[in-house]
Specification:
By secondary structure, this protein is an alpha+beta fold. Helices cover about 20% and strands about 10% of the residues. It has three helices and three strands; from the N terminus they run βββααα. It has a three-stranded antiparallel β-sheet, with no helix packed on it. The radius of gyration is 14 Å and the shape is globular.
């Protein structure tokens, strides 16, 4: 079951992705701008970037939504490294 939405999706929030009610997996994204239109679509924020947002903004974004979700699930990083060589990777993160 999806989390209850308790806050809006403003710039810097960490949000679980979804493709509809009760479809959330482990994929997350950071809002780089206020995305209040997502409030009614079931995207549940779970946190906020409070330090290092400039680092998050430096992640390569040139591919947009081009990577295929089914191929990521099936082939993992092998697909991403071959098809999207400029893709940035997060090697470590912490929650407090």
């Amino acid at each position: 079951r999806d989390d209850v939405e308790m806050m809006s999706r403003w710039s810097g929030t960490l949000v679980f992705a979804t493709s509809g009610p009760n479809t959330r997996t482990s994929q997350m994204f950071i809002n780089y701008k206020d995305n209040l239109f997502l409030d009614k679509q079931g995207f549940a924020p779970i946190g906020e970037v409070v330090q290092g947002f400039d680092v998050a903004q430096a992640v390569y974004s040139g591919y947009g939504e081009a990577p295929s979700q089914p191929r990521i699930q099936k082939e993992g990083n092998a697909y991403l490294k071959e098809a999207f060589p400029k893709l940035s990777y997060i090697k470590a993160a912490s929650l407090s």
